[in-house]
Design a protein that fits this description.
Strand order of the largest sheet: 4-3-2-6-5-1-11-12
Number of helices: 9
Number of strands: 12
Radius of gyration: 20 Å
CATH class of the domain at 22-89 and 180-328: Alpha Beta
CATH superfamily of the domain at 22-89 and 180-328: (Glycosyl)asparaginase
């Protein structure tokens, strides 16, 4: 009995040590596109980097204290939705009617459960509504007025649609609308509008989660919905495999089921996270004619941030490490 107790104690101590040393990681993005140094003044470059660092600190603090990957993902995206620098929540780009029309999704890798909302105009933080859809309904995806009623019924903060519209976005809309009506072709932006925001996380318990939020494409019509609220296209998480969030032209991500494709190449093809993402971004997506990027983290805390554009607002932080923040393709 004493020998058995001794070995049981050793096993307990070993497991405790291992759990205490469990790696965790957080990765975020703020959109991919033609992100070049000449497009951003030094002041705006600094603003974006500071915002990405603050978002990292928000999520990393939760993970470091033993919080869940799901809580970290939601908190990071709430911060990014509230920051007018990004195309999500307040500061989102405007549709053809001059309104912000928002999409978001979240997925829990431990249960393979997910929630999403699309085409909403008055939910202050769509990512919160997505999580409520996951945890407090039998649905995955709700849209437009129905999603807004669901959020209101469950006590989420609602705002006037004007809340989301910043002076910079209003000015962009006026110029873009004028060029669009003249049939001037490609709309040039004085301040480039980048895509989706997203976050993926691995917590100390080994659970994965992913979330994505966006204002979608500028001047979109007919309540168009992209990949961000589509599970498997713009967001995917599965414990033991990976968590992924996408940014780019959503139609390609939907048709290629790209977020899930990364996980499938890992799970069934035996590829490492970086190799799977490289194949999806630089071969499958490019061959389809699409552009954009992906961020991911696997069950061991390995991270990847890949894109086939000039740049992507991106950052990550791993247990005990320094914050890594990048914007341009040559970083």
């Amino acid at each position: 009995m004493r020998i058995r107790s001794f070995f049981a104690l050793l096993a307990f101590l070993f497991c405790s040590q291992w759990l205490g040393a469990q790696s965790f990681a957080l990765v975020i993005h703020g959109g991919a596109g033609s992100v070049q140094r000449e497009n951003l003044s030094p002041a705006r470059d600094s603003m974006y980097r500071a915002a990405l660092r603050e978002a990292l600190a928000t999520g990393y603090g939760i993970l470091d204290e033993g919080g869940s990957a799901l809580d970290a993902v939601e908190s990071v995206i709430v911060y990014l939705e509230d920051n007018p620098l990004f195309n999500a929540g307040r500061g989102a780009i405007l549709n053809s009617d001059g309104l912000a029309e928002l999409d978001a999704s979240i997925m829990d890798g431990s249960s393979i459960n997910a929630g999403a909302v699309a085409s909403v105009r008055s939910i202050k933080n769509p990512i919160k509504a997505a999580r409520l859809a996951m945890e407090r309904s039998s649905y995955v995806l709700m849209v437009a007025d129905g999603a807004e009623q669901f959020a209101k019924d469950r006590g989420l903060e609602m705002v006037d649609p004007e809340y989301f519209i910043t002076p910079a976005r209003r000015e962009w809309y006026k110029k873009a609308k004028m060029k669009d009506e003249r049939g001037a072709g490609k709309i040039l932006l004085s301040h480039p509008v980048f895509g989706t925001v997203g976050c993926v996380a691995l917590d100390k318990q080994g659970h994965l989660a992913a979330g994505t939020s966006t204002g979608g494409r500028g001047l979109k019509r007919y309540r168009r919905v992209g990949d961000s609220p589509i599970i498997g296209a713009g967001t995917y998480a599965e414990d033991g495999v990976c968590a992924v969030s996408a940014t780019g032209y959503g139609e390609y991500y939907i048709r290629g089921v790209l977020a899930y494709d990364v996980a499938a190449r890992m799970k069934y093809g035996g590829l490492a996270l970086q190799d799977a993402m490289r194949e999806v971004i630089h071969h499958k997506l490019r061959d389809m004619g699409g552009t954009g990027g992906l961020i991911g983290v696997d069950s061991e805390g390995n991270v990847s941030m890949d894109f086939n554009t000039n740049g992507m607002f991106r950052a990550y932080m791993k247990k005990g490490g320094e914050a890594v923040v990048k914007i341009y393709g040559d970083e």
